[in-house]
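On clarity, I found the account of how folds are encoded harder to follow than it need be. For illustration, here is how one protein appears when written out as sequence plus structure tokens:

:::
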Amino acid sequence: MKAASAGLLGDTATRDYSHKLRQFNSFAEPELRRLIASVGLRPGMRVLDAGCGTGEALPWLLGEIGPSGKVIGIDLAAAHVDAARRYASLDIEIHQGDLLAAPVAAESIDFIWCVNTLNHLHDPLQGVNRLAALLRPSGRIALGQSSLLPDMFFAWDARLERVTNEAVRQYYRDRYSLSERDLTSVRAIVGVLRAANLQNVIARTVLLERVSPVDTATERYLVDTIFNGTWGERLRPYLTDEDYAELARVCDPHHSSYALRRPDFHLLQSFTLAMGEL
């Protein structure tokens, strides 16, 4: 494994997002699997999941290319790779390493799936160029990006949505000493693909939409990853006392205002998939 300096959001080989990754993949599984089914994978293809995380997408990808195909997963974090290895088989190969130096031969991959990874790189264009070098002629790369951190839309409370989203943005800017411009790669995936001289660039955005009553996977994701992990005490300095108290109430399963039991609960979170061809 190539030694790597910390990524834009502090990523190193020892960084562990396993819990968040598993919960997001469980929450978004229906939409992610439909997107994978829509990209035109064929039996026998070689597919790379660049930034495979805890590996939930590996068998989904293999399901589209059949037993004659091959899926390769690579992730920097040791904890993620350990979790992903439960999917390892003759048809699914897992590596720990830097995707900028992936242990994959040049021009050997038909399709690259890269989700919620590009925004962790200091230089997203360099990352796409390195990945594109692994593609066979006419191979394709798909960059997926959820708006997990900055943009979750509460169709039931626009004011609280606005102040909470801005508090999250400011928290992450302060935590990693970033400017607003440093975070533009979250929304710049179409431009990055075109800057890498990929052809036939297209994009599709789907909404991860949930209304009450929510399923178990959604509740676990929202309570653990969002209410406790992304919001919680860390947002207190960025909100007025009144707004923080209101947010705490809607996040508290024991309070009568708990969001997930409100009949007007309606969540919208976007997920964008942009694809380009060599």
